[in-house]
Amino acid sequence: AQTIHQWPVAEIKAVGSPLSLGCTIKGKSSPNLYWYWQATGGTLQQLFYSITVGQVESVVQLNLSASRPKDDQFILSTEKLLLSHSGFYLCAWSLGRTSAETLYFGSGTRLTVL
Amino acid sequence: GDSVTQTEGQVTVSESKSLIINCTYSATSIGYPNLFWYVRYPGEGLQLLLKVITAGQKGSSRGFEATYNKEATSFHLQKASVQESDSAVYYCALSATSSGQKLVFGQGTILKVYL
Q1: B105 within 8 A of A44, measured Cβ to Cβ
Q2: For B23-50, how does the pLDDT look when each residue is reduced to its tens digit (9 = 90+)?
Q3: Cβ atoms within 10 A of the Cβ of A100, count?
Q4: Which of residues 22-61 of B touch A (CB under 8 A)?
Q5: Facing residues of B40 across strands?
Q6: How far apart are CA A50 and CA A36, in angstroms?
Q7: What are residue B85's phi and psi, to 5 degrees?
Q8: Residues B105, A42: contact at Cβ < 8 Å?
Q9: Could you say which DSSP state residue B96 is in?
Q10: A94: closest CA among A85, A106, A86, A103?
């Protein structure tokens, strides 16, 4: 069975501090990977996607970066957090290349920037 | 750009009553978009409830139904008789055929079902 694990579950960080969020998918080879973000009271927005190791496409500019160092791992990071980075971050995966594919989401990371 | 609108931020319904959660969309891409309902139950991750990729078709799952109405650009979620276990956050979403797997979500609707 496929599993998706996100870490950490929650973070409280200071403005200007670095951040690293992670996501691991087990049980699927070469998945497409995504990062989504939801600000408090806002909608879920796609931030990044990756169809293969080492390749990441940015969808929304939020002074964040993403990397895919291994086939089953997706990392979201920044060197300096802003207050506006607070929110809920979701990692997701899919298999196919069509727009009709189902996305499978992790449980998310709640980030609070103070 | 593409957008999805859910007009109700929260809906409160008595158990065994009927439910409609409204969803309308705007898609600027060529061709009809794919439409989805995702749900997040308390303590769980976001998961697919149902999807419809053909205009005019109906999707169903767990007693919920949604019909892809391309004339009205709507994809309302309905259930004839809700249960307390249906309490969750429901998100309508679309993906345009020309933009790969980028899901555009609505704001979400919190459904609270009371006994």
Answers
A1: yes
A2: 999 988 778 899 999 999 998 889 999 9
A3: 17
A4: 33-34, 36, 38, 44-48, 51, 53
A5: B89
A6: 12
A7: -70, -10
A8: no
A9: -
A10: A103
- Amino acid (one-letter) located at A104: Y
Query: Out of A44, A100, A106, whose CB is closest to B45?
Result: A106
* Residue A12 near residue A67 (C-beta atoms within 8 A): no
**Interface probe with B: pick from A7, A33, A35, A44, most Cβ of B within 10 Å:** A44
Question: Do B53 and A101 make contact, defined as CB atoms within 8 angstroms?
Answer: no
Give the tens place of pLDDT for each residue, B45-78. 899 999 999 999 999 999 999 999 999 999 999 9
What CA–CA distance (Å, rounded) separates B74 from A80? 41
10 Å CB burial of residue B111 (0-12, 13-18, 19+) is: buried
Q: How many CB atoms lie within 10 A of CB B7?
A: 11
Q: Which residues from chain B sit within 8 angstroms of residue A4, using beta carbons?
A: 45
What is the token pair recorded at A16?
């200007």
Token output for A19? 């951040």
Given CB atoms, is B6 within the 8 Å cutoff of chain A? no
| Omega of the bond leading into A8 within 30 degrees of 0 (cis) | yes
